[in-house]
Design goal:
- Helix content is 42%, strand content 15%.
- It has 513 residues and is of the alpha/beta class.
- The chain has 2 domains: 22-213, 3-Layer(aba) Sandwich (Rossmann fold), CATH 3.40.50; 232-512, UDP-N-acetylmuramoyl-L-alanine:D-glutamate ligase (3-Layer(aba) Sandwich).
- A 10-stranded mixed sheet has the order 8-17-16-15-14-13-12-9-10-11, with helices on both faces.
- Helix 4 links the parallel strand 2 and strand 3.
- The two termini are 20 Å apart.
């Protein structure tokens, strides 16, 4: 699903109205009807027992609110509309829908001062339709007071398109901002809804279609997309009922060193939990007994190591190439360490890899200053740096601005002919010539040691099951984040650890299968 800025959304709206002949009033009706339908089906069991307060601004967001109020009223909900006047300041479409609501006898209260409002609203639901996607700056005067008032109430808050006061492009706010329980955003998702603090302000979010033709959206050549659960379900490989372990991918994890065996075991176990038929961890001979004791179902293979260092030696190269030829996908780097021989081993391997590979952690650090090797590699590569690793690779820290960061990810993927997954909040993924995909799942509990190793194993497993590199990275990030969300729900974000995400994977696949 395409992801848009405020300017892009406004341009899509204009094209729809001006060139396709779909009246703005029709789009407003579709928007209000879509949100009202979802409120009635998702949030209300018996409309006749529910009361709602709908706060409407002067613009088209307020017009959407009038439509919602009218349809909730017609469904049996007791509705009061609080509107920011004066009436002659309302947009044309908002005024038209104000009149329709008034014609039904819905109570309408003009807010000229916050003193008009009762100290506490006696209602079950508040609909915030004060400001929409086009808002920027800080709410002032009565508008700011109304936003603070909404936040002080006990009722559930539904935001129309955007919590009022929030910047749709950045997720930031200046001054008062609505903290919503639910946000129904219109037509397409917006960047700011998935970047902190915006992602914490929107609550549960859902995109509501309003009748914009798909070819209109396509005509704008939008370059960023939001990963959705439906797309992940569609992309996951089908498991034939008569399949055997050889059908579901053989994954080789090249990982581990003294003191870093946990990374190797987390990557191996997460690959197995993601559906791989066979997983083997190739590791330094010194640490192989430790890894064999840690893991039961994952196989281990000892390799030559640097004397008394517990790190892979360069002389392991030939044996590793033989192992790689026996597998369907490679995970390279978790806990592998930074010994100079190991770095040289990694670089020689990458230059000749003929198997889809994900490179993470110190596998990436070995490539710093040697990015030309990426063009030499004949196989598909997925690189998964966090911002610090990306800076070591490129000499530049990725920008904080989400749209500029997305451009950087796409540029790197194009220039080096790889799939780049830049970890963060949110994680961004792009392949050569592709959109940049924003991953919406996950939480700050995943900022814990070993989380990236779990992600590597998940993506490596999907590669081994036959997914293309970009699909594997996009779906892997979504699965990883969803596992983190489940783990946080069970353990709390503060207390969860990387292994909890592996334990949550079966519940993720219950949702996806």
């Amino acid at each position: 699903m395409k992801l848009v800025t405020t300017a892009q959304m406004q341009a899509v709206d204009r094209e729809t109205i001006d060139s396709r002949g779909i009246p703005s009033d029709t789009l407003m009706e579709h928007a209000g009807a879509g949100i009202a339908d979802r409120i009635l089906s998702q949030l209300i069991e018996d409309p006749e027992t529910v009361s709602a307060a709908v706060f409407c601004g002067k613009g088209n967001n307020g017009g959407d609110g009038y439509v919602i109020a009218r349809l909730l009223h017609q469904a049996g909900v007791t509705v009061v509309i609080y509107f920011l006047g004066p009436l002659d300041a309302l947009s044309v479409d908002a005024k038209r829908n104000f009149d329709r609501a008034a014609g039904l006898g819905i109570d309408l209260v003009e807010i000229t001062s916050a003193d008009i409002l009762p100290e506490q609203l006696d209602c079950d639901l508040i609909v915030d339709a004060v400001f929409g996607t086009g808002f920027s700056g800080a709410p002032r005067g009565v508008s700011a007071e109304v936003i603070e008032y909404i936040n002080d109430q006990d009722a559930h808050v539904v935001a129309v398109d955007m919590p009022s006061g929030m910047n749709a492009d950045t997720g930031d706010f200046e001054g008062a901002v609505v903290v919503a329980d639910y946000t129904y955003t219109l037509a397409l998702p917006k960047f700011g809804q998935f970047v902190s603090p915006g992602r914490e302000l929107v609550g549960e979010i859902e995109v509501v279609p309003i009748g914009i033709p798909e070819d209109v959206v396509e005509s704008f050549n939008l370059t960023c997309s939001l990963t959705t659960m439906a797309e992940v379900i569609e992309a996951l490989p089908i498991r034939p009922p008569d399949g055997h372990k050889g059908d579901f991918g053989k994954v080789l994890v090249i990982a581990g060193s003294t003191g870093l065996t946990g990374a190797a075991s987390l990557a191996g176990e997460s690959a197995l939990r993601t559906g791989s038929g066979l997983v083997k961890v190739a590791c330094p001979r010194t640490v192989q007994p430790v890894l064999a004791a840690k893991m039961t179902e994952v196989m281990t293979h000892p390799l030559p190591d640097v004397a008394k260092k517990g790190a892979l030696a360069l002389r392991a190269l030939g044996e590793l190439r033989e192992l790689i030829a026996q597998h369907d996908a490679i995970v390279l780097g978790p806990g592998i360490g930074r010994h100079r021989e190991t770095g040289e081993l990694i670089r020689r391997l990458v230059a000749s890899l003929d198997c889809p590979t994900i490179i993470d952690a110190d596998g990436l650090n070995a490539l710093a200053g040697h990015l030309d090797i990426l063009q030499e590699c004949p196989s598909a590569l997925v690189l998964t740096p966090h911002p610090g690793e990306f800076e070591r690779l490129t000499g530049e820290m990725p920008p904080d601005d989400i749209q500029k960061r997305a451009d950087v990810v796409r540029k790197f993927a194009d220039e080096h002919d790889v799939v780049l997954l830049l970890k963060g909040s949110p994680t961004l993924i792009a392949g050569p010539g592709s959109d940049c995909y924003l991953n919406p799942s996950g939480n700050n509990g995943m900022a814990t040691g070993g989380s990236g190793d779990v992600l590597s194993g998940i993506i490596g497993s999907l590669l081994g099951q036959g997914m293309e590199a970009l699909e594997a990275a996009v779906c892997g990030a979504y699965i990883h984040g969803t596992a983190g969300d489940i783990a946080a729900g069970e353990k709390t974000a503060r207390a969860m650890i990387a292994g909890d995400m592996i334990h949550a994977l079966p519940k993720v696949f219950e949702l996806l299968d």
